Amino acid sequence: xxxxxxxxxxxxxxxxxxxxxxHIHVRREGKLAKVLLDPIEYERIGGFNAGExxxxxxxxxxxxxxxxxxxxxxxxxxxxxxxx
Length: 84
What we know:
The structure is a single chain. By secondary structure, the protein is α+β, with helices and mostly antiparallel strands. The chain has one domain (about 5-80). Helices cover about 30% and strands about 30% of the residues. It contains two helices and five strands. It has helices at about 50-60, 65-75, and strands at about 5, 10-15, 25-30, 30-35, 40-45. The protein has a five-stranded antiparallel β-sheet. A hairpin with a 2-residue loop joins strand 1 and strand 2 (about 10-15). The radius of gyration is 12 Å and the shape is globular. It starts with a strand and ends in a 10-residue tail after the last helix.
C-alpha cells in the first residue's frame, strides 16, 4: 500500500489490491476516507469532520494530476478491464 502523498498531516494511499474507478484512501489519526479522483468526490467519509473533509478535497484537487499518475503506475490502463 504505497503512500503517494503526505500533506497537512494526511497520508494519501493507493492500495495495491484495489479496484477501479481511480481513487485514493486518506488516513489521519485512525480515520480512513476514500475519495474518487475523477470526478473528485467522497465515496466514504471515514469519520472526518466537515473542516477536514474540505481540506482533503482541496489537497486532492491541488494534486489530482499527480494522484491519477500514481494510480496509473499501480494500475496501468492497458492492463485493466473496466467492464466489470
